[in-house]
Amino acid sequence: MSGTPSPSTPGRDHPGERAAADPIRLLAIRDTPLSVDEVFAAVGDAAAGGTALFVGTVRSHDNGADVDALGYSAHPTAEAEMRRIAEKVIADHPVRALAAVHRVGDLRIGDLAVVVAVSCPHRGEAFDACRKLIDDLKHEVPIWKHQTFADGTDEWVGA
Question: What is the pTM of this model?
Fold first, then answer.
């Protein structure tokens, strides 16, 4: 159920069924620990019946190799790109509220790397919009991951 429902769908002409006027509540790139509670609170909306939240964490392995250390770097345009992606998600889905934060700097295994959330009138719309948001952020925002492996090798991802 992506996209804005047609006005002829029963009940969908109510303002609460459409995208909110200013649904971007929080967009940030931070060098401090992220808060799931902050992101979840940012997307609270009385007209939303569904909220989808995604939390990306630093894992202990990648492609069969043990990860010892990980760092994220962002281009100065990264937040502007996040906004462009958020606006596209809002244009394609009936988003009531949207929030996304990404961490930069050195992280440890288990640390939160990214938290995104979307609230919409219905759960399917929220799932679809949240998945689109995180997938496009991962593919299009200029944030690069530098991994150091247990065997001493390292790699840049997304660079």
Answer: 0.87
pLDDT at 6 over 60: no
Rounded-to-integer distance, Cα 36 and Cα 18, Å = 26
Q: Give residue-wise pLDDT tens across range 25-63.
A: 999 999 999 999 999 999 999 999 999 999 999 999 998
The span from the CA of 137 to the CA of 135, in Å, is 6
Rounded to an integer, what distance in angstroms lies between the CA atom of residue 118 and that of residue 129?
7
Q: Are residues 110 and 57 in contact, defined by beta-carbon separation less than 8 angstroms?
A: yes
Q: How far is C-alpha 44 from the chain's CA centre?
A: 16
Q: Counting beta carbons within 10 angstroms of the beta carbon of residue 74, is it exposed (0 to 12), middle (13 to 18) or buried (19 or more)?
A: buried
Rounded alpha-carbon distances, angstroms, from residue 121 to 106, 149, 152: 37, 43, 49
Strand partners, 55: 115
Q: Which residues partner with 117 through β-bridges? A: 53, 99
Q: What is the mean pLDDT of the chain?
A: 91
Question: What is the pairing mode between strands 65-74 and 105-107?
Answer: antiparallel
